[in-house]
TrEMBL record:
Entry function: The beta subunit is responsible for the synthesis of L-tryptophan from indole and L-serine.
Gene expressing this chain: trpB
Organism in which the protein naturally occurs: Thiocapsa marina 5811
Residue spans crossing the bilayer: none
InterPro entries: Trp_synth_b-like, Trp_synth_b_CS, Trp_synth_beta, Trp_synth_beta/beta-like, TrpB-like_PALP, TrpB-like_PALP_sf
Catalytic class of the enzyme: lyase
Modification sites for N6-(pyridoxal phosphate)lysine: K113
UniProt KW keywords: Amino-acid biosynthesis, Aromatic amino acid biosynthesis, Lyase, Pyridoxal phosphate, Tryptophan biosynthesis
Name the UniProt record assigns to this protein: Tryptophan synthase beta chain
Lineage: Bacteria, Pseudomonadati, Pseudomonadota, Gammaproteobacteria, Chromatiales
Gene Ontology terms: cellular component: cytoplasm
Length: 453
C-alpha cells in the first residue's frame, strides 16, 4: 500500500547469513596488536577470553557468514523487526523528506543488543564454557546477555558502570530475573576495580573500567570467557541482521535511503543498520550518506585521535587502531550510558578516516527534546541513546523542509526508553543539564596513548 506505516517480513525472510564488511573495505584494517609484544595478535592470544568461533569471525574476510540455526530459532522470537515510515513525524515537521526507522525495541531486552548476545552465548555453550563475564553501560547489553545466558544455560556476571547502576535499578532487576549477577563498577571484586577505588573512591565508573574488571575475572578461570557488546568486528557482524532486513523492507516500500543515521557509542547499532548498505556502495552501488551521532560529552569520533589504544582502562586488552579519547578518560555521567565509551569500533573508525562516515554530536538536552517530539508523533519513547539518532534525523528532515528536497532518511531506533523513565522525569522537571567533558582530562588521557612503532 502506498500509505503503509509499517513494513513487516515473515520469519522465512530472516537472513541466513550476516554481512562482513571486511570483505569490501577499500583498504584493510590496521592489525590488532598484542599489548605486551605489540606484534599482530594471534588466535591463540585471544583464546584466553573468547571462544574459537568468535575469534574466527573477528578475523574473517569472508563476505557472508552463516547464522547457525539454533541462533535463528531464538532470533525468530522477535525478528524480523519492523520497519516504520514515520508519517506522523513527517507531518509534524512539515518536511518533504521521507523518514523510516528500524525498530529494535521489539526484542525481549528492548534493544538491538540480543542480536549479538544470542550468538555469543551459543558459541560459548558449544565450546563448553560455563560462565561469561561482561560489562554494561546503560544496562541494555547486560540485560541482553543475561537473557542469552538463561536460554543457553550459562552463568552470567555483569559489571555495570556505577552511575548507571544507581540510575537504573530496573535494568539490574531485569538481569537478575534471568539469573545474572550484576555488580557496580568499579568494585572491590577485582584488582583493577580496587586500584581505581583507591585513587578515586567516588568514581562513577566507565565502560573502560567495567571492561577491565570483566576481562580480569574471565582470565582467572578456564571455564569462563568474556563477551563484549560492541566495538569488535564480530559484534558489528552480528548486528548486520538489522540492515539486511531493512534492505528487504525498503524494497517492499519501493524506496532506497539517501542517508542512514545511527547513534554511536562503541558502534554496533550504527554498523548494524549501515554496513549492508555501505557494502553495496563499496561494490559499485548507489551513493549514500552515513551519519554517526555521538554525545557532545563523549565525542570520540568528532574530537578524538585516530591512534592505537587499549579498549579498557587497566590496559589488559589488545591494542586497536581507532578514534579514541584515551583509555583512562572517564566521561561525565550523562543519561545515555550506552554511549559513554572512550573509543570507537575499529571498522567504523577506519571508514570514518577514509571519509565514508560523517560524525556529528549533540548535547543531551537537545536529544531528550527530540525524543519527546518523536514520542508525541510516533508513540514510542526512545532510549536516551537512540534519542541521538532521532535528533539527527529531525535536523536532516528540517534541512529538507528548508531546501525543498525530498530525501529518504533511514535511522535505527535501537531501543525503547521504558527502563529510562527516571531520565525523562528529570528532564521534564528541569533537573538535567548539558554536561561537558574536561578538555584537560582528555588531553591527559591522550598523552598516555601507547607508543606504537
Amino acid at each position: 500500500m502506498s500509505d503503509s506505516v509499517k513494513y513487516l517480513l515473515d520469519e522465512q525472510h530472516l537472513p541466513r547469513t550476516w554481512y562482513n564488511i571486511n570483505a569490501d573495505l577499500p583498504t584493510p584494517l590496521d592489525p590488532v596488536l598484542h599489548p605486551g609484544t605489540q606484534q599482530p595478535i594471534t588466535p591463540d592470544d585471544l583464546a584466553v577470553i573468547f571462544p574459537r568461533a568468535v575469534i574466527e569471525q573477528e578475523m574473517s574476510t569472508e563476505r557472508e557468514i552463516e547464522i547457525p540455526e539454533p541462533v535463528r530459532e531464538v532470533y525468530r522470537q522477535w525478528r524480523p523487526s519492523p520497519l516504520y515510515r514515520a508519517r506522523r513525524l513527517e507531518k509534524a515537521l512539515n518536511t518533504p523528506a521521507k523518514i523510516y526507522y528500524k525498530y529494535e525495541g521489539v526484542s525481549p531486552a528492548g534493544s538491538h543488543k540480543p542480536n549479538t548476545a544470542i550468538p555469543q552465548a551459543f558459541y560459548n555453550k558449544q565450546e563448553g564454557v560455563k560462565r561469561i563475564t561482561t560489562e554494561t553501560g546503560a544496562g541494555q547489553w547486560g540485560s541482553s546477555l543475561a537473557l542469552a545466558g538463561s536460554m543457553f544455560g550459562l552463568e552470567i556476571v555483569v559489571y555495570m558502570v556505577k552511575v548507571s547502576f544507581n540510575h537504573k535499578p530496573y535494568r539490574r532487576a531485569f538481569m537478575e530475573t534471568f539469573g545474572a549477577q550484576c555488580i557496580a563498577s568499579p568494585s572491590e571484586t577485582t584488582a583493577s576495580g580496587r586500584a581505581i577505588l583507591a585513587e578515586h573512591p567516588d568514581s562513577t565508573g566507565s565502560l573502560g573500567i567495567a571492561i577491565s574488571e570483566a576481562v580480569e575475572l574471565a582470565a582467572q578461570r578456564d571455564d569462563t570467557k568474556y563477551a563484549l557488546g560492541s566495538v569488535l568486528n564480530h559484534v558489528l557482524l552480528h548486528q548486520t541482521v538489522i540492515g539486511l532486513e531493512a534492505q528487504q523492507q525498503l524494497e517492499m516500500a519501493g524506496d532506497y535511503p539517501d542517508m542512514i543515521i545511527g547513534c554511536t557509542g562503541g558502534g554496533s547499532n550504527f554498523a548494524g543498520i549501515a554496513f549492508p548498505f555501505l557494502g553495496e556502495k563499496l561494490r559499485g552501488g548507489r551513493d549514500i550518506e552515513l551519519i554517526a551521532v555521538e554525545p557532545s560529552a563523549c565525542p570520540t569520533l568528532t574530537k578524538g585521535l585516530f591512534a592505537y589504544d587499549y579498549g579498557d582502562t587497566a590496559k589488559l586488552t589488545p591494542l586497536v587502531k581507532m578514534y579514541t579519547l584515551g583509555s583512562s578518560f572517564v566521561p561525565p555521567g550523562f543519561h545515555a550510558g550506552g554511549l559513554r565509551y572512550h573509543g570507537m569500533a575499529p571498522q567504523i573508525s577506519h571508514l570514518t578516516k577514509l571519509g565514508y562516515i560523517k560524525p556529528t554530536s549533540y548535547n543531551q538536552l537537545d536529544c531528550f527534546a527530540a525524543g519527546i517530539r518523536f514520542a508525541k508523533a510516533e508513540g514510542i519513547v526512545p532510549a536516551p541513546e537512540a534519542n541521538h539518532a532521532v535528533k539527527a534525523a529531525i535536523v536532516e528532515a528540517e534541512k529538507c523542509r528548508e531546501s525543498g528536497e525530498a530525501k529518504t532518511i533511514l535511522f535505527n531506533l535501537c531501543g525503547h526508553g521504558n527502563f529510562d523513565m527516571q531520565a525523562y522525569t528529570d528532564y521534564l522537571a528541569g533537573k538535567l543539564k548539558d554536561l561537558t567533558y574536561a578538555e584537560d582530562e582528555v588531553a591527559m588521557a591522550l598523552s598516555g596513548l601507547p607508543s606504537v612503532a
